[in-house]
Structures
1.
Amino acid sequence: MDQDFFLIQKMKKGDETAVEKFVRKYYPGIFQYCLLHIRDRDEAEDLTQETFLKFFQSIGRYQHRGRCSGFLYTIALNACRDYCRKAREQYMEEVPETAREDPAMSTAELRMDVENAVESLPEEIREIALLFFFQGMKQREIARLLDIKVPLVKYRVARAKKLLSSYLADSDIAPEGRESGGKEEI
C-alpha cells in the first residue's frame, strides 16, 4: 500500500495531522495547476482551496485506487472550468494605453503570447500541454491521471509542440524575443 492510502484512512478517522500532511503534499501542485488555468493568483488560491474542500467533503465515499492525485486534479480541472465558464460571461479586459508604450511590456507581451497560444489549443491537447510543460509531469503520470494510453499522451505532446510553434510563429515571436518572418519554428 502507498502512503496516500494510509493518509486517507487516517483522515477518514478524523486525524488532523494526516489532513495537514496530505494538504502539504498536494497543495503546491494543485495551486500551480489552477494558476496555469486561471492566471490570477488570488482566484487560483480560491480554486485550490475549493478543490481540497470538495475532496474532504467526498472523502467518505472516496475509494483509493492508487495515487489520489488524479482525483484531486480532476476536481481542480472541474473547478477551473466552472470558473472560466462564469468568467467568460462577465469578462471584458481593457489594457491601458500607457502599458503598451512601456519597454518592460515586451516580456509581458511574450508571456501573454505564450499564454494565448496555450489557450488556443484544443482542450484535450491543452490539458496535456499544461501538465507536461508547466507541471513537469512525466507522460506515464499524465496517462494514469487522465486514464488514457501513453501513446496518446505522446501524440498530444507532439501535437501541442507543433501547434504552439505554429501559433507563436504566426504571432511573429521567435526564440529570445527576436522578430521572425513567421517561418521560424520555436
2.
Amino acid sequence: MNQKHRLMTVLLSPRVTEKSTRLGEAGRQFAFKVERSATKPQIKRAVELMFNVKVEGVRVNNVRGKHKMFRAKEGRRAGWKKAYVKLAEGFEIDFAST
C-alpha cells in the first residue's frame, strides 16, 4: 500500500456532535474517528491532504467500548480512536459542502 493510499484510509468519519460543533465554531477544532493504528503525524497529513488545510496540532483519545447486556449474556462494544485536530488561523472545514 503506497503512502497516499494509507493516508486516505486513516480518517474513518467526522464526529459531528454538539461538543464538536462548539469546538469547531470557537476554537477551529474538529473531531474525527480514526483508525486504531493511526499516529498523530499520519492524522495530520491525512487531514491536510483530504481537506486542503493547514493543521496546527492533533490530540488523540482512545475511547473504550461500553459493556452491554443482551438477555443473559454480557458483551462489549469495540473501542475506537478519536482525534481532535486544530487548524491554523484562517482555515476552515465545512462538512455540509464536502
3.
Amino acid sequence: MTQTADITALLDAARDGDRGALDRVLATLYQELHTMARRQLAGQHGQTLDATALVHEAYLKLIGRREAKFDDRAHFFAYAASAMRSVVVDYARQRLAQKRGGDLHRVTDLPEDIEGGLRLDEDMLGLDTALTQLAAVDERLARVVELRYFAGLSELEIAALLERSERSVRRDWQKARLFLLASLKES
C-alpha cells in the first residue's frame, strides 16, 4: 500500500472518530507540517513562536475540534493551514497587546510570495481580517490564500492538493490578492 493510500485510509478512520488514526496521520505528515511552519516563520529571529511550537499548537487545534473531519489529503492540509493561521494570528495579537497596547496600522502591500516568512505583526492581523472577508465572498479563493500564505505551498503544490490546474490556482491567487489588497487599503 502506498503512503497516499495509507493516509487516505487513516483519514477515513479519523473521519469516523478514530483519534488514534488522526494521531497516525499527524505523525506521518509531521515533517511536511514542520516544513510548512518553517517556511512561514522564516526570518522571525528572536520570537518565542518557532516551527515546532507552531506545528504543536496547530495539532492541538486540530484534535480539539470535534467537527474536524478530513475527506482527503487536500482537506487535511487546508484544515492544517487554517489551524496554523489561527495560531499565528493569535500569537501576533498577543505580541502586539504586550508590545504597545495592540495599536494597528494600515497595511498597504501584500507580497507575491512569503519567501522571507510571515511577519508576526499588525500586518498579520490586517491580513486575517481581510481574509475572513474574502472567505465570506469566495471560500475557494480564501483556501488558496491560506494554503499559499499559511501553509507556504507553491501554486503547483496547491494545484496538486486541490486537483486543479496550476493556471487555475494562479488565477485564483491573483483574484484573491486583488481582493485582499483592496480590503487592506479600505481598512
